[in-house]
């Protein structure tokens, strides 16, 4: 009897799909990493801005779409979060953490194309990505945008594969919500639509080749063999009514959110027209300007393993013959030589239209376009459409965000997403290669070397992820930490709360604190429950227990605030590396320990307490 039970247990154990178990274990870990200790970081300026407007909306003060604050989805979704979990520093970040975890779970939709091993590899890259984890714990729109962009692409692939209308309607809903989150939906839609166009043209031209038609016939043996564009238009004709219904799904979600459930009709026009005018103006004026190659440093510092596997995998994949290997190698070497010799030279003034400043920017653009297009066509020729999509998306996405007039670290999230998927696919290709089954002595050494490199890259990722997200989450020594609210503000808030508690009844009838200048954000969020605080236009007649003003303005009110104790407080902090002060040793110390080689900067405020 015992032998029978043991045999049955072994059978059950053998039938477990360990790759699927590992995938869902990774999803669970992703949720835990995004929710763990979520509130233990001062709210950034932008977080406090969005949080305060969501709180006012929740209180019944209404909401009207403003392109400066991006789309309406996050504000409406946050109402549900506040209703279920209350209002706190934790609840305000639940939405990004939730959709950051759902992004990892949605990788399951790619199982039929990437395989179970590829699905697991992609999930691991997104789960442990320092950048994705950081902005999944940060209350801005980009975690929502990344999820619905990925969902739009994945659901569209599922519909094209299964022709089930359920996936069509989900695709329309994801696309509509994309446009209700952030204006970069236009960028992502442009990338995916142009890829479909490139794929259609390429396959239409290749359809003339007999060997290509045989491959297509073997793929779709149950259907008549048609040219790609003919098949596309045939599907349009067959599915015209479901497509119309999907259009209604898109429009109704869009209309309901932009009009705030029909209470603000002007929002519909603003969502269509003002979005374009506002962000084109921001793009042209380059309000938050950065170099064309701004995101390159983030790739090397935070996401080097994904860059090495994703981009390196493409280079290896396109080098299928000796000639192609030589061409890919010389293109890379030539780009490196030209960058070293001429990269620091400035481009002519008429290049300003492209936002390029140095010859390195032009060399980088030409190189990415060459390798990206070559890689896209290579994988399309091999009928690996998923890989081709993410090669195209990675290259074109990097160039578009490099050209965009606004450069901020959270936009790097969208540059990175397709590269993480591509890195997962390339890792799957490496692990499933037949050469690993060879038992020769050179192959054994190659396995040991590859394993060592893999361990080093995984260790680097884990080190960077833990350092950024759990130790230095609000420390300006991290390049990802962008003008972050200082911990000094949290200490100041404890003092404010103590004084508010200790003041007498007579003082309680007056405003407790007056705030003027830069500190309005994030204090508007932190002081939201105070009945007695205000933004003074002039401090001439002020008589509050506490006052907060810009540090530079203190001389202006020196006489008015004579009876107060002055404390200097760091409001926001940052670090901009001075490359002239760097050396290899200092860079090593920075990468390993985040030991900066020039001082950090800050915006300071003056905190006054009445004596």
Automatic annotation (TrEMBL):
The chain crosses the membrane at residues 12-33, 77-110, 117-135, 141-159, 166-184, 190-210, 241-261, 295-318, 325-342, 362-381, 386-404, 410-427, 448-471. Keywords: Membrane, Transmembrane, Transmembrane helix. Residues 70-200 form the Glycosyltransferase RgtA/B/C/D-like domain. The keyword Transmembrane applies. Coiled coil: none annotated. InterPro entries: CHP03663, RgtA/B/C-like. Pfam families: PMT_2. This is Glycosyltransferase RgtA/B/C/D-like domain-containing protein. It comes from Candidatus Moduliflexus flocculans.
């Amino acid at each position: 009897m015992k032998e029978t039970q043991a045999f049955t247990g072994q059978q059950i154990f053998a039938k477990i799909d360990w790759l699927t178990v590992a995938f869902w274990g990774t999803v669970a870990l992703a949720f835990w990493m995004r929710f763990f200790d979520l509130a233990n970081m001062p709210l950034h300026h932008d977080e406090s801005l969005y949080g305060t407007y969501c709180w006012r909306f929740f209180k019944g003060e209404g909401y009207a779409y403003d392109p400066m604050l991006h789309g309406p989805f996050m504000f409406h979704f946050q109402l549900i979060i506040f209703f279920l979990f209350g209002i706190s520093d934790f609840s305000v970040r639940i939405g990004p953490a939730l959709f950051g975890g759902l992004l990892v779970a949605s990788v399951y939709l790619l199982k039929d194309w990437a395989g179970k091993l590829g699905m697991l590899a992609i999930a691991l890259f997104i789960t442990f990505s320092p950048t994705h984890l950081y902005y999944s714990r940060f209350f801005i729109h980009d975690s929502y945008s990344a999820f619905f962009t990925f969902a739009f692409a994945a659901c569209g692939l599922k519909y094209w594969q299964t022709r089930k209308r359920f996936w069509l309607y989900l695709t329309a809903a994801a696309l509509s919500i994309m446009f209700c989150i952030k204006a970069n939906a236009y960028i992502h839609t442009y990338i995916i639509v142009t890829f479909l166009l490139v794929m259609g043209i390429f396959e239409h031209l290749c359809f003339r080749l007999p060997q290509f038609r045989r491959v297509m016939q073997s793929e779709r043996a149950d259907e008549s063999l048609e040219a790609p564009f003919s098949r596309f238009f045939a599907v349009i004709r067959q599915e015209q009514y479901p497509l119309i219904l999907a259009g209604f799904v898109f429009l109704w979600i869009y209309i309901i959110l932009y009009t705030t459930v029909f209470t603000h009709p002007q929002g519909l026009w603003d969502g269509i027209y003002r979005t374009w005018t506002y962000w084109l103006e921001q793009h042209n004026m380059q309000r938050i300007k950065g170099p064309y190659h701004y995101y390159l440093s983030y790739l090397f510092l935070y996401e080097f393993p994904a860059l090495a596997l994703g981009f390196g995998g493409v280079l290896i994949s396109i080098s299928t013959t000796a000639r192609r290997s030589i061409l890919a190698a010389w293109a890379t070497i030539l780009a490196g030589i030209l960058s070293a010799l001429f990269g620091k030279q400035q481009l002519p003034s008429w290049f300003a239209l492209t936002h390029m400043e140095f010859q390195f920017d032009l060399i980088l653009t030409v190189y990415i376009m060459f390798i990206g297009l070559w890689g896209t066509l290579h994988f399309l020729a091999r009928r690996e459409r998923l890989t081709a999509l993410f090669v195209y998306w990675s290259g074109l996405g990097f160039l578009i965000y490099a050209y965009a007039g606004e450069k901020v670290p959270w936009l790097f999230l969208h540059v990175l997403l397709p590269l993480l998927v591509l890195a997962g696919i390339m890792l799957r290709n490496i692990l499933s290669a037949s050469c690993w089954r060879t038992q020769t002595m050179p192959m054994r050494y190659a396995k040991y070397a590859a394993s060592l490199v893999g361990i080093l890259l995984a260790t680097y990722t884990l080190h960077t992820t833990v350092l950024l997200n759990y130790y230095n989450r609000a420390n300006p020594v991290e390049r990802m930490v962008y003008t972050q609210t200082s911990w000094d503000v949290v200490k100041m808030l404890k003092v404010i709360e103590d004084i508010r508690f200790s003041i007498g009844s007579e003082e309680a009838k007056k405003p407790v604190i007056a705030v003027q200048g830069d500190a309005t954000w994030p204090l508007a969020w932190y002081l939201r429950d105070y009945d007695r605080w205000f933004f003074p236009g002039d401090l001439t007649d002020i008589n509050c227990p506490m006052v907060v003003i810009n540090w530079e303005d203190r001389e202006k009110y020196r006489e008015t605030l004579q009876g107060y104790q002055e404390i200097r407080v760091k409001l926001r902090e940052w670090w901009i590396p001075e490359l002239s002060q760097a050396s290899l040793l200092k860079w090593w110390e920075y990468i390993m320990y985040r030991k900066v080689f020039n001082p950090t900067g800050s915006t300071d405020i003056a905190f006054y307490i009445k004596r």
